[in-house]
Recover the amino acids of this structure.
């Protein structure tokens, strides 16, 4: 499937699925609606990643039955689609996306939680919404680097997102690391992995167009041990979580070196 056809098909399926989700979830109560959206998001993203030719494997798991904030590295535009195809989670995204054409529809359909970084009252509202979602049984996933990187190293974790779980007696942070293992069937190494990442000065749509031309991609997702939030403030949680994600990154790089001989 060529890039143009793949792009059109991806967009049509995404919009149609989003409209269906909005209609199907109208009469559900808030708790049931959160779980419904997370599950429907997962199924929709399975279809979308198949269109793109993406596959993935997961090492570890997100524990069930505990309020969890999942923290992952951020390498590209399509990260949420890749991860949502494997996990029933809610995402936190910047508030500006609520006004983007088409994307705003998708965000409403899947229950995106919008982060307002400059207004205190709205920021408090975001924290409350994250906590409500976690206590409804849906884990919430954030990208604490705050932006995408070239994948060669983690950027410093911003602490704001950790406020939602800081000090929570029954809350946990789940560290996660993911990256491409193969591109068009060829094993990547420490340098060629950068091919799929999105960083300045490349624009978002230029990155999407580039990725769609690479051929099938296979990703590896690594999940670490839960980090108890009880007794830890947001700064400590950010520091401990970054170390845990870095350890997962080092594990993947070690495996890549072994596979590459």
């Amino acid at each position: 499937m060529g890039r143009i056809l793949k792009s059109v098909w991806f967009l049509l399926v995404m919009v149609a699925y989003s409209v269906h989700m909005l209609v199907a979830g109208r009469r559900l109560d808030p708790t049931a609606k959160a779980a419904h959206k997370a599950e429907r998001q997962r199924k929709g993203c399975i279809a979308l990643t198949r269109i793109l030719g993406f596959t993935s494997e997961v090492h570890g798991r997100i524990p069930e039955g505990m309020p969890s904030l999942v923290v992952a590295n951020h390498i590209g535009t399509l990260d949420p689609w890749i991860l949502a195809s494997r996990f029933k989670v809610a995402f936190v995204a910047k508030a500006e996306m609520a006004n983007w054409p088409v994307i705003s529809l998708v965000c409403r359909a899947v229950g995106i939680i919008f982060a307002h970084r400059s207004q205190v009252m709205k920021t408090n509202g975001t924290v409350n919404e994250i906590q409500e979602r976690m206590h409804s049984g849906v884990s919430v996933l954030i990208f604490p680097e705050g932006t995408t990187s070239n994948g060669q190293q983690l950027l410093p974790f911003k602490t704001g997102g950790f406020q939602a779980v800081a000090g929570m007696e029954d809350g946990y942070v789940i560290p996660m690391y993911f990256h491409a293992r193969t591109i068009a069937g060829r094993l990547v190494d420490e340098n060629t992995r950068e091919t799929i990442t999105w960083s300045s000065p490349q624009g978002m749509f230029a990155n999407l167009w580039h990725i769609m031309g690479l051929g099938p991609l296979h990703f590896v997702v690594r999940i670490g041990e839960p980090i108890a939030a009880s007794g830890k403030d947001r700064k400590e949680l950010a520091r401990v979580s970054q170390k845990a994600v870095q350890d997962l990154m080092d594990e993947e790089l070690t495996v890549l070196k072994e596979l590459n001989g």
